[in-house]
Amino acid sequence: MLGSPSAKNLAKFYREIVGLKQGEVMEIGDDKEEGYEFKLGNSALYIIDHSKIKGKNSLPDRIMFNLEVDDIEKETKRLKKSGAKLVQDIYHVQDYGHIATFADSDGNYFQLVKTSP
């Protein structure tokens, strides 16, 4: 789950720039804050409005989540062309695979990952 000062804007980034398929849009709590669901295989990413979150993430290295891809070179190129901020270009991790790190519109880091067969 990602808390945001604007779940609507952050969900738009993951939908339009990253290309995740959005599921349900939810109304949360008495203040009717918004929440967005993105299905990721057997898992899901939820993006919600959160009243305690202000501005961009000041510690984006603390938590990163991975999005596994079939073709890391193609997807990295596509995200860069779409305007996503590249933090670390593709690198290899022995016995794991290849990783590229990006920042989203709130400053959170996420990684594209292509695991080794």
Could you characterize what this model shows?
The protein is 20% helix and 45% strand. The chain is built from two helices and eight strands; from the N terminus they run βαββββαβββ. The longest helix has 12 residues. It starts with a strand and ends with a strand.
Strand content: over 45%
| Quaternary status | single chain
Tally of structural domains? 2
Helix-strand pattern: EHEEEEHEEE
CATH architectural name of the largest domain: Roll
CATH class of the largest domain: Alpha Beta
Mean pLDDT: 93
Radius of gyration: 15 Å
Quickly list its features.
single chain; 117 residues; alpha/beta; 2,3-Dihydroxybiphenyl 1,2-Dioxygenase, domain 1; 2 domains; 4-stranded mixed β-sheet
Q: How would you summarize this macromolecular structure in one to three sentences?
A:
By secondary structure, the chain is α/β, with parallel strands linked by helices.
Would you spell out the secondary-structure blueprint of this structure?
Layout (H helix, E strand, L loop, with lengths): L1 E3 L2 H12 L3 E7 L4 E8 L2 E7 L14 E5 L3 H11 L2 E9 L3 E7 L5 E7 L2
Parallel strand pairs: 1-4, 5-8
Antiparallel strand pairs: 2-3, 3-4, 6-7, 7-8
